[in-house]
């Protein structure tokens, strides 16, 4: 097998994998969730880089010629170093891609007011990766970063549909609009957050758009494979879906179903 590797620190990357499978179902996919060390969002650059590199190395060992970091924190804190420093040593023919750049390339197209908000983990907001990347493609676009640290634990504990989630969703949406009432586009820059989409929309003024990353990343990947046949032809196409977790498979299978939308049977791997 030479599957597309999809990595996340936990479960959120499964929302990206879902859209990849829906849009590009012919390929084999291998998903790795580093649940034993999640969340990454509040960890240092050095720790996120070290953990992400270990996961990338393992995916390369499984034969993945293309790896998607379906984790905004890993994309913000580790991707560039891995691309520029480590890949030449590990496998010069392999490619590792993230979720920030493809999103930054198009997000400004959705805003009419020229003001957007980026809702993310503390680590992604702290990195300023979105502001830096968006400025390259849409100079002058106003970006309001908003860290939402409680959203991931609410989702992973299956509390995102309950009243407790309403408080935190309403609070952060209100804070964004207080900072810039012209914001007309909210980017969910954490792959967990699409599970809160309906609640977020409840607290937004009419006409404010909410963007999840899955569709953007899937479209970008399809374009990438069309432009890079040297990678595309190496990918196997048996429609296999394989799932690994660094933590309990029982817990992973139960929670992964929420994110992936169908039953998952995972295997355990110990990276330490």
From TrEMBL:
Gene3D superfamilies to which the protein is assigned, alphabetical: 3.40.50.1860
Organism's domain of life? Bacteria
Q: Which UniProt keywords apply?
A: Cell shape, Cell wall biogenesis/degradation, Isomerase, Peptidoglycan synthesis
- Please tell me whether the keyword Glycoprotein is annotated for this protein: no
Function text: Provides the (R)-glutamate required for cell wall biosynthesis.
> Which Pfam families is this protein grouped with?
Asp_Glu_race
Name the Gene Ontology biological process terms: cell wall organization; peptidoglycan biosynthetic process; regulation of cell shape
Active site (catalytic residues): 71 (proton donor/acceptor), 190 (proton donor/acceptor)
This chain belongs to the protein called Glutamate racemase
For substrate, which residues are the binding ones? 8-9, 40-41, 72-73, 191-192
What pathway is this protein a component of? Cell wall biogenesis; peptidoglycan biosynthesis
Q: Which GO molecular function, any one, fits this protein according to its record?
A: glutamate racemase activity
Database matches in SUPFAM superfamilies: Aspartate/glutamate racemase
Enumerate the HAMAP family for this protein: Glu_racemase (MF_00258)
């Amino acid at each position: 097998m030479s599957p597309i590797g999809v990595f996340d620190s936990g479960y959120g990357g499964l929302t990206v994998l879902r859209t990849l499978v829906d849009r590009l179902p012919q390929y084999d996919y291998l998903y790795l969730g580093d649940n034993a060390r999640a969340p990454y969002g509040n960890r240092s650059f050095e720790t996120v880089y070290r953990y992400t590199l270990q996961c990338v190395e393992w995916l390369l060992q499984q034969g993945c010629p293309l790896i998607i970091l379906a984790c905004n924190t890993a994309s913000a804190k580790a991707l560039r170093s891995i691309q520029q420093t480590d890949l030449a040593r590990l496998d010069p023919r392999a490619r590792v891609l993230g979720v920030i750049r493809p999103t930054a390339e198009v997000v400004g197209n959705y805003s009419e007011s020229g003001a957007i908000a980026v809702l993310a983990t503390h680590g992604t907001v702290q990195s300023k990766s979105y502001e830096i990347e968006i400025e390259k493609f849409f100079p002058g676009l106003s970006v309001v970063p908003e860290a939402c640290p409680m959203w991931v634990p609410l989702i992973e504990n299956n509390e995102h549909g309950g009243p407790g989630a309403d408080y935190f969703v309403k609070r952060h949406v209100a804070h964004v609009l207080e900072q810039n009432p012209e914001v007309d586009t909210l980017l969910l820059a954490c792959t967990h957050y699409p599970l809160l989409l309906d609640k977020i929309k409840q607290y937004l003024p009419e006409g404010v758009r909410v963007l999840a990353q899955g569709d953007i990343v899937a479209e970008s990947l399809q374009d990438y494979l069309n432009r890079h046949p040297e990678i595309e032809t190496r990918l196997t196409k048996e429609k296999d879906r394989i799932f690994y977790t660094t933590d309990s498979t029982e817990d992973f299978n139960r929670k992964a179903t929420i994110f992936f939308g169908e039953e998952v049977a995972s295997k355990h791997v110990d990276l330490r």
